[in-house]
Amino acid sequence: MDRKKIRFGIQAAAALIQNANIRGFLTGRIYEGATKSVCVPGLNCYSCPGAIGACPIGALQTHLASMKFKFPYYIVGLLIFFGAVLGRAVCGFLCPFGFFQDLIYKIPFYKKNRFRIDKFLRYLKYVVLALLVIILPITCDLIPFFCKYVCPSGTIAGIWLAAADKNIRSVLGPLFSWKLILLLIFIVTGLIVRRPFCKYVCPLGAIYGFFNKVAIYRMTVDRDKCVNCGACAKACQMNVDPVKNPNSMECIRCGECVDACPYKALHMGFTQGKKKEAAKAGD
Amino acid sequence: MRKYLPAAILIVLAIVLIVIGIVLQQPDSVLHKAIRICMECVGLG
C-alpha cells in the first residue's frame, strides 16, 4: 500500500477515534466520560458532540483564563510529550481539522500554493499563539479569545449542536455568524491553498513546529543519493525545501516529498534509515 | 543515538510536568471544563 493511502487511513482512524461518541452527533449531547480529562494531540473542540477527549488549545486557554492562575503543568507536559515524539507529524496524521482540510483540498478546483505574501502570513500563527491563546486570556476579562473568535473546530461543533438541538438554534447570534463566516473563508481558501488554517493560523501547529528539529519522528537526507534536482521542493505543498531544511517548522510530515524523490534520498520515520544516511544528514 | 538526546530530555521533562499536574489534580479541572458545552467555543457566548 502506498504512503498516501496509509496516511489517509491513519487520518480517518484518528479523526474517528477522537470523535468516537457517534451517539452525540444524533442527540446533540456532548460526551461526559472520564476520557475527557485527557488532551488529544490534535485540534478537536471538546464541545463537539463526538469528542471523547479534550482539545489541548481549549484546555490551555480555559486554564490560563481561570481566576486562580496556576501554571498548566499537565497540559504543557502533554504538549511537550506529543511534540518531542511526533513534532508536526501530529498535524499530518492525527489532527481531525487537518484531515478535514485535506478532504476539502481534494475537491477539484483552481490550486495555488506559492504566492508572495505566503512567507509573511506564516508568522501570523505565532501572533495568534502569543496573543489570542496566552496573553489576552490571562490579562483581559479571562476570555478564551482563540476559541471564542477564531477556532473553526468549535464552529463545526456549534453547527452539529445547533442542528441537533432547537434550544441551541434559538440562541444563535452575531458571534456564531462571525465564526461561520470565518469557517467559510477557511473552507473556500482551502479549496485553493492546501491547509490554509494550518499554515497561517493554527496555534497548535505553531507549538508543534518548535519541536520538529528535535522530535523522534523526523526526516533525513542521504547526501550521497541527492542530486539537488528539486523534485521534493516542487512536490511540497507546505512550501518547504526538504533538502535545505528537512526538519522545517512548517513541515507537517505528509511525506509527499519522499514519494516525489526519484533517487530515494529522503527518509522519514522514527528510525533514521541506514546509519550511513543518518550520519550524513545535514539537519 | 546522540540525535535523540534532546527528544529524550524533553520526554522526561514532559513526564515530570504531567506527574506534577496529576498531583495538583489538573486533569480533574480539564475534565470539569470539557464535559460542559463551551458556549464561547461553539459561538454562542
Describe this structure in words.
The complex is a heterodimer of chains A (283) and B (45). Chain A is an all-alpha fold and 283 residues long. Chain A has 17 helices and 2 strands. The longest helix of chain A is centred in the middle third of the chain and has 19 residues, at 174-192. Chain B is mainly α. Chains A and B meet through α3, α4, α10 and α12 of A and α1 and α2 of B.
Name its key features.
heterodimer, A: 283 residues, mainly alpha, two-stranded antiparallel sheet, 3% strand
Query: Percent of residues of chain A in helical segments?
Result: 40-55%
Oligomer: heterodimer
Shape of chain B: elongated
Largest interface: A-B, 57 and 35 residues
The number of distinct helices of chain A, counting runs of at least 4 residues, comes to: 17
| Sheet with most strands of chain A | 2 strands, antiparallel
Structural class of chain B: mainly alpha
What is the number of strand segments of chain A?
2
Span between N and C termini of chain A?
A: 29 Å
Low-confidence stretches of chain B: none
Estimate the helix proportion of chain B, in percent.
55-70%
Summarize the structure.
The complex is a heterodimer of chains A (283) and B (45). Chain A has 283 residues and is mainly alpha-helical.
What topology emerges from the helices and strands here?
The complex is a heterodimer of chains A (283) and B (45).
Chain A: H1 3-18, H2 22-27, H3 56-64, H4 73-86, H5 89-94, H6 96-105, H7 118-121, H8 124-139, H9 145-149, H10 152-164, H11 166-169, H12 174-192, H13 196-200, H14 203-209, E1 218-221, H15 231-235, H16 256-260, E2 266-269, H17 275-280
Antiparallel strand pairs in A: 1-2
Helix pairs in contact in A: 3-8, 6-12, 8-14, 10-12
Chain B: H1 5-23, H2 26-34
